[in-house]
Amino acid sequence: MSNSLATAITAPGGALRRSAAERAAMWLGDRGTLVTGLVLAVLILGFSLLGPYLYTASPYAIHGHHALQGPSATFPLGTDQIGRNELARLIAGGYATLIVSIPAAILTFGLGIVYGLAAALSPSWIDKVLMRVLDAILALPGLVVLIFFSALFQPGNFELILLLGLTSWPGLARIVRNEAIAQRNRDFILATRQFGGGTWYVARVHILRVMAPILVVNATFLVGDMVLALSGLSFLGLGVQPPYTSWGGLLQTGLNLIALDPWWMILPAGLMIFLSIMAANLIGQGLLARFGAAR
Amino acid sequence: MLRMIVNRLLTALLSLAILITIVFFMTHATPGGPAYSILGQKATPAAVHELNVRLGLAAPLWKQYVIWWWHLLQGRLGYSYLLNRPVTQLVGDYMMNTLALYIGAILLALILSIGLGLLQGVTYERWPARVIGALQLSLYALPTFFVGTMFILYFGVKWGVLPTGGITNLRLENPGLPDYARHLILPVLTVGLLGVAGLSRYFGTSVHEELGKDYVRTALAKGLTFRAVLFKHVLRNALRPLVTILGLSFPGIFAGSVLVETVFNYPGLGYLLWRSALSQDYPVISAIVLLIGALTVIGNLLADLVNGLLDPRERFE
Amino acid sequence: MSTVLSLEHLSVALKRGRGRPISVLDDISLTVNAGEMTALVGESGSGKTIASLGVIRLLPRSAEITGKVMLAGTDLAALTESQMRKVRGRDIGMVFQNPLSALNPTTRVGNQIAEVYRLHTGESDRAARARARELLGEVGIPDPAERLDDYPHQFSGGMRQRVMIAMALACSPKLLIADEPTTGLDLLVARQILTLLSRLRREHSMGVLFITHDLSIVEEHADQVHVLYAGKSVEWGGARSFFAQPRHPYSQALLGAVPRLGQARLASIPGNLPDPESRPPGCRFAPRCAFREPACETAYPAPDTTGGTIFACRRAREINPAALLDAVTPEAAPAAPVNRATALEVTALGVDYERTATSFIQGVLGRKDKMRALEDISFTLGQGECLGIVGQSGSGKSTLGRAVLQMIPYQGHVILNGEAFDAMPRAQRKPARRRIQVVFQDPKESMNPRMRIGDIIAEPLKLAGIRSKRARVDQTVALLDRVGLSDRMINLFPGSVSGGQAQRIAIARALATNPGIIVLDEPTSSLDVSTQALLLNLLKDLARQDGLSYILISHDIAAVSYMADRIAVLNGGRMVEFGAAQEVLTSPRNAYTRELIAASPHFRTNQPGGALDIMEFLPSTAQPSAV
Prior knowledge:
The complex is a heterotrimer of chains A (295), B (317) and C (627). Chain B has 317 residues and is mostly helical. In chain B, 78% of the residues lie in helices and 0% in strands.
């Protein structure tokens, strides 16, 4: 019983709800967020994955005579304390960071959805049990657990992916479960059951479809979280191990030598982490705005 | 009402019990062990075995589990392998430092967030809100360890106005409060500023939602000024979710503390955890992990309870 | 008779985005006199809420307002904002729809009332509190002193609305504006609120501007009626003249769309409200009017003052009310119930309230607080019969529907074509459920917003095993046709169709599996009166064509009276009355039923000259039924 005009007036204080024309303008505006994020993401991906082919200097080669130099013609981002090319290391760092973060995000995503949906669609007592366990797991901050486990054994990249995935899924699982439960008793689900839809059919065809926007948005934010977590771990020396470099590791080196004022060892690496997380969040934000209307 | 409290308390205790069990398995059921760290890599198997018996690590797992609970309930958390001090004392000392850091940071973050969030909620979709939104996005994407390092680089190294780390100036005989305070500034700034991102976002959304509700229109129809409506009605309702968020952010805070304290060499709980993890000092690790977990559960409980108290709808259910 | 409020040529235009402002109200003039009630009537989109917000100037800053809003001599439109603030709450009191959200949920009721009193009189807290208590008593809230410190959610819906009225009265305003105050309230409660308002306005010589979409509610209480359509006034005048004989086709259709006892068909208005950007320059109702002629669309008709009411229609005088006196033959009262095969039988049905465990321990032990939502319900449903289930909120009628549909657990038996559901083997239950389908109250909520309409209707076909896409598409088109929608809809999403259209799609989907029985759970409650008529007519036609049985669940006795062959009345989970519709409605045995029926203003038998007779002139759906 609503007409867009009538509902347009209810919010006082000057906050007009949006009409069709305004929504279109906003869509374009928010597309800006999405586009910026995508462009940024493409650039970072290109930098990290294609970089080694375009800029062939080795990240491992030691140039003792040129140690700890600022940016110059030969070394655009300077050198580290044993004379390695910082720019090359930055590219290599990107590579390692991304090949761990992205699969970890995918793993987290998969585990979270399965657990969350299982909890939401099970009989109430199973759901309660699953959520209690989840609460207990969530009481331990992921980073703490990560630190604990990676101190135990030096993880290779594959183990890192597993570790990250296994410690991050609870957060997503809870979101998925809450959302699925909210959808579960909506009228259109009930109607579908009435003409023959079973539990799995309903989950697959309807619930997932309605949840798709939230899932996609969360997936993008997840990538950002993984990059952050991995960089943090590497910063502590517990993440990506030599011979691989990572941005976090570069930062750690920079911090250790900070008395020598080596801004070129700190700023670029930190910026890359910042930009990556920014890209993920911009994409998520842009998608959120796009999907927000069609709920 | 009493029922609700008891109910939540019991749930919290159960979560705690599960947590304690998980930590037990984490620390006792994993391969390796502290023996090699303590005795060195060249230790003979016999020496390792003897050490394990001494430390109580050779008994069957279930027995260790029972002893674990028994000790826990007595408050005996053991001795640090490395530093040979009682764990409780150790953790206690380091925890005070972390608390100092966090209380300062939360206060800073709260003040800034309420102001920014209010502005953002009221000017929704106009340029101030957009600017604040962009600011939040940027702050969110900045890693704490990056910002901390940059702070040290500029304020500490380049300009030399603030100390570069630690909690006191080691050269001073009697570091007084001012010295502590100077050392706290950068860490507090780091944690506090970055915390503004999430907190102000929540608050801004909360304010905006409240402004769209019907009772605001009713209040205006009574003749109140917009400002009166904002501060007398909306603010109170919008602040409520903030309390819950604060309570729920405990885990995040401790995770963050590891990174920040490492950057600043600040002797807090996170720093201790990191050091202990590197040297496999199990008693300390277990104690810290347990503490963090327990504080999280308590934080959640408090958040729930306070929310229940503040929202009259919950109170009378 | 002093005039409290006088709107003079009030027009409001709203800016939408960067485009030109849209006219929402066009040249409205109305008056409210002291001690009287003027009813401002219109459906959604008519601009009535804008009018109320325009009077107290709570429209967005970008709104353009022209004309005068005279409140006892002062033009409100010319005041500054700070002057206007003094008027709000002191000279004008407002009562909004939906009191639960219109009151601050975290502030005590006494404080909310005291606030407005203190604000305008500057009195002390003690005095304000005393005044609040006085007001609560005046609006009929028992134990006002204790209830001062209660929160809004501790009151029932009707009581909350009384609280809002108390708040509006705090400073003894000259004018009270009530914007749909009874929408969403139960019938009995709504009636009480209206009676309260009438008493208050007489006692305080206060003018009341009552805004509503439901003409029948104000029939007893309004002194003046003003009908709006698409932002323009179409008819206005004294209530008595209006209700005796409305002249404008739209007013007539509005009244005629309300179901009355013994009516064979409802008057419905085809088409939709015109899009504000594409309004005809002439009469805005013309595109939907049965009496239109080309001149109607080009120039807006001047108000005609010849009759009892003033109206804007060029042809109204030709519509001779006397000629419309072709009394529709009331349905021959069924002497004995028609012998029908039993499609459904329900015996001793009971349902417990599902309360989530209130404590963790209880949850673990599996014990729940037990309360009965339904107790010992039994009835039979014949083939082709429509059974109406009537009750107020909380009576358990929706629960009954869900139990029959097998959506919730229950005790007792539901027997479909001789077989009880609880006795059926698992494998048989699904196909059995297909034979009872459902139409919910909120049409858009009952469809997946991200699925196309064609897929929505075809889904039951798919699940029933029809593999060929071609066959499904053909059937979908056929179903759409049966409910009167074009196949253009197939590729649209539910969000882009109107409420009435969406509900028809829901009906089409329900028909897809060829059910014998359809449970209609408040199918028209969220629709406009005119759309409601359209839908009820459609349902009746479908039933006749297919021999469908209906269980019609509704709080609206009028709708039930139009559709049902037999009626069951529920109160507090029990069936208090059950019998043939005619009997239940005209001579109810149970006291509660009597109260319900008396409260429904629709309940007049056919009056000569009643508006309902013009239905013959309305196209498409107006086929007098062969009774």
